[in-house]
Amino acid sequence: MKSVAIFALLALAFVRSETTMKVTFDPSSVKQLRELSSTIVTVWANESFNDVSVYAKATAPDVVELSTDEILFLPSNENNSRFKANFSIYGTFLGTCNVFLVAVPKEANASAEAPIEKSLILPVSVIRTKRLVDKIFIITVPILVSLIYINFGCALNWTVVKNTLKRPIGPAIGFVSQFLFMPLISFGIGRLLFPDQPALQLGLFFTGCSPGGGASNIWTVALNGNLDLSITMTAISTFASFAMIPFWVFTLGHIIFEDANLGVPYNKIATIAAGLLVPLIIGTLIQFHLPRVSKFLVKILKPFAVLLIIFIIVFATITNLHLFRFMNWKVFVGGICVPWLGYVFGALVARILRQSGCDIIAISVETGVQNTGISIYLLKFALEAPESDIAQVCPVAVALMTPIPLAILSCIFRMRDCKRGNHLKGAEKLSSQDAETPPDTNSRNTDQSVY
């Protein structure tokens, strides 16, 4: 009989452990609690839980700090049919987490590993306290991005684009690489590396959906690639991005938004896309109708276009230095994989389709170099805090990792050119010593430069 009684008690305990505490939270969620501030949450129940001890716990103790005292339920009406309790939540660091209650035996404490009962979750998000530098960033970024797009519209050489499009295979490869491979690979890498962090998934995905970066033209020149093709692909990806970014955000991005329990910001994405298109059209109209003004703007803004993008990235990093706490090996792997796989994919497809060496370089660079300034801009204004702040970690990581292989290749090419130059100088010296007749002035120089 004793063994039967023990078995019955164990069975009762097992059944009890499978139950959920029937409590409700007021409010039902704590959204955008500012760092270093606190709020009180009221808990309602139909029982007093006198036979157990109740404590509050959080899935991310570094985000919020909870009351460590036992939560006591007191009657809230005369017939003792409704009970009420309170506990405090203190925001310690930017992020999101879930808070829940656990019921443990009276002799146990809050750290008991096997609670008897567990409540449903209370979603909590903590945001940063707005500072002056944050307000400056929010004001200056749209202005700088608009200047970049006006400059691009003024500086775009439509003759080069028209001539390059006569052989559309290169631009077609660039378009497929930029707006098919990059969004898909960034989506897959984000899901693989950050399965439980939708904000970081969105950061990597928005970066993969962004158009080619203005720095791609500079790197193409540095690596002796086809600059005309690079400019054409940049123009195509910039104009196409106004349709392709919303397309990918509203399709694959919808999956991430659902996982994060966030609504897809249809209106914000559409507004931002339209807001970027306006300065681009303005710049193009200035080029066609006010050529002198266009030349003046290009002369002033063109040298600063890349600096403006760098400024946005650096400013975003400085204003969000605390986000480096999110910088772990997974973030750096994501920052490496997205641009570097873009280089490889663009080069392989161009090679398979028998493109020239300089075209392969241009396509590869244009595919891998993303306009991270635009992705930071989109994330900042399309998402709400704290997701918008956390998501910016990924484009910053991509921006840091993007130039590494290009810089290494550039150094290798320069060393190779130096060796060839020294060899050619030596050969020219020997030939000049052995020459007995002047060169044939009627011979044609067959060396042509490709621009």
Q: Tell me the structural class.
A: alpha+beta
Largest sheet: 5 strands, antiparallel
Helix content: 55-70%
Strand content: 5-15%
The rounded distance between the terminal residues' Cα atoms is: 95 Å
What assembly state would you assign to the polypeptide chains in this entry? single chain
How many whole angstroms does the radius of gyration measure? Answer: 30 Å
**Shape type:** elongated
| Residue-averaged pLDDT | 81
User: How many helices?
Assistant: 16
Count of DSSP strands: 10
Low-confidence stretches: 1-18, 432-451
Q: How do the helices and strands follow one another from N- to C-terminus?
A: HEEEEEEEEEEHHHHHHHHHHHHHHH
Any overview of this molecule?
The protein has 451 residues and is α+β, with helices and mostly antiparallel strands. 60% of the residues lie in helices and 13% in strands. It is built from 16 helices and 10 strands. Strands 1, 3, 5, 6 and 7 form a 5-stranded antiparallel beta sheet that branches. Strands 2, 4, 8, 9 and 10 form a 5-stranded mixed beta sheet that branches. β6 (74-75) and β7 (83-91) form a beta hairpin. The longest helix has 32 residues, at 403-434. The radius of gyration is 30 Å and the shape is elongated.
Write the layout of secondary structure elements.
Layout: H1 2-17, E1 23-26, E2 30-34, E3 38-45, E4 52-58, E5 64-66, E6 74-75, E7 83-91, E8 95-105, E9 117-118, E10 122-127, H2 132-155, H3 158-164, H4 169-193, H5 198-209, H6 215-222, H7 227-250, H8 252-259, H9 266-289, H10 291-319, H11 329-352, H12 357-368, H13 372-382, H14 387-391, H15 393-401, H16 403-434
Parallel strand pairs: 2-10
Antiparallel strand pairs: 1-3, 3-7, 4-8, 5-7, 6-7, 8-9, 8-10
Helix pairs in contact: 2-9, 2-10, 2-13, 3-7, 4-5, 4-7, 4-11, 4-12, 5-8, 5-13, 5-15, 6-7, 6-12, 7-9, 7-12, 9-10, 10-13, 11-12, 11-15, 13-15
